Amino acid sequence: MNGWRFWLPRTLVAAVIISTVVIATFSLGQLLALPSWALWLTTVLVATLTCALSLNALIAPITQGLSGLETGLLNLGDNDYANSLTETGPAPIKALLISYNRTAEKLREQRYHLHQRELLLDKVVQNSPMLVLLCDQRQRVVFANHRCELMLGQPTLAGKKLDHALAEVSTEMAQMLTQTQDGLFQLTELGQSYHKISGEFQIHGQAHRLILAREITREMARQEAAAWKKVIRVISHELNNALAPISSMSHSGRKLIGSDADPRLARVFDNIEARCKDLNGFIQGYASFAKLPSPRIGNHNLAELITPLAEHFPLTWELTTSWGQFDRGQLERVLINLMKNATEAGANQLHLKVESQGDALIWQLQDNGSGMSDTVMQQALLPFYSTKKEGTGLGLALCKEIIEAHHGQMRLQHREQGGMRVSWSLPYHPQPQA
Length: 434
Hints:
Elements: H1 2-31, H2 36-77, H3 91-126, E1 131-136, E2 141-144, H4 146-152, H5 162-165, H6 171-178, E3 183-187, E4 192-203, E5 206-215, H7 217-257, H8 263-290, E6 298-301, H9 302-310, E7 315-319, E8 323-326, H10 328-344, E9 350-357, E10 360-367, H11 374-379, H12 395-405, E11 409-414, E12 420-427
Parallel strand pairs: 7-9
Antiparallel strand pairs: 1-2, 1-5, 3-4, 4-5, 6-8, 9-10, 10-12, 11-12
Catalytic activity: ATP + protein L-histidine = ADP + protein N-phospho-L-histidine
Pfam families: HATPase_c, PAS_8
Keywords: Membrane, Transmembrane, Transmembrane helix
């Protein structure tokens, strides 16, 4: 019905025009006294031309609408959704044009939202602490986030062959990123643990491999420390429950025997009380690890912290900044424990370097002692592990616990010149000098 509203008036107008032209042509021919055959031929020719022109005028809106629709569809094929078509012409053509414009508008909105989601996803992935690496079937890097590029020591990885990108990294790191096996990987040189998962899928019909690796060093350390603390608390509780009555009975027994008793009994009670006192001190030492208080962070002058230590240890130091943020008492305890271990290992030269790197304060303590074997170094930070005859195995573990409570990381390394290098990082904010 809507089509007739468009066609009927236009058809009537065309019929009137054609009839008028034919009649006018026939009348003009008679006035000119043309022969019959010429009159009829002229009339037919004029009528045919008029019909053609009228038909072209009638179908022009259709051809224009279809042409515009064709152009719009070609634009959609090229992912160009910006153009809209003029909604004119016969009702069916106009309906098509309206549908096209609505579709294009919807596609524009969807592309905008998709673009926003892509920007958000890229922001999340690029700033994720997880290593994200995507390679194609030719082992060429398609995508790597900032964390991955930082770990591999290259500012841009996209487009490079994976084996070339891994040429400068450690063997352990290269194995983690090239092996198809998922699971836990230890990076001994960095003192870090990673959990890696990977998977293969199709992108544009081509096989790709996605590698995700997350550092779990701190998480494992926290769980390990929590487990040790629980064990220490249980042992301390049971030992205290046993020591209390032993000490009490020894004290009571000393009173009962009197002053004129056999001297050997007095020596027995002395030994019992001495052993109870030593064991109580032993328990208190472990309790200090299990009940380490949260650090009270403040701004402290580094020279004021280090200078008193140099009076008791063969220490030299180098500072590139004057201030740091930490718990002074706890960090002093870390430095004393580390310097004491170094001197007990034969070191007579200690050098401490403190420098700021961005938002981190890097500490490095070097010594020229006997160092550690690789086996000892792998176990040195574990609670209760000690190579000393009278060691408790809590010195380095307590240092590590304090550093991690400050949201830092601690590493042990061999020095090429001999001895050890202990380094750790702490959060840092520049503090102007007073």
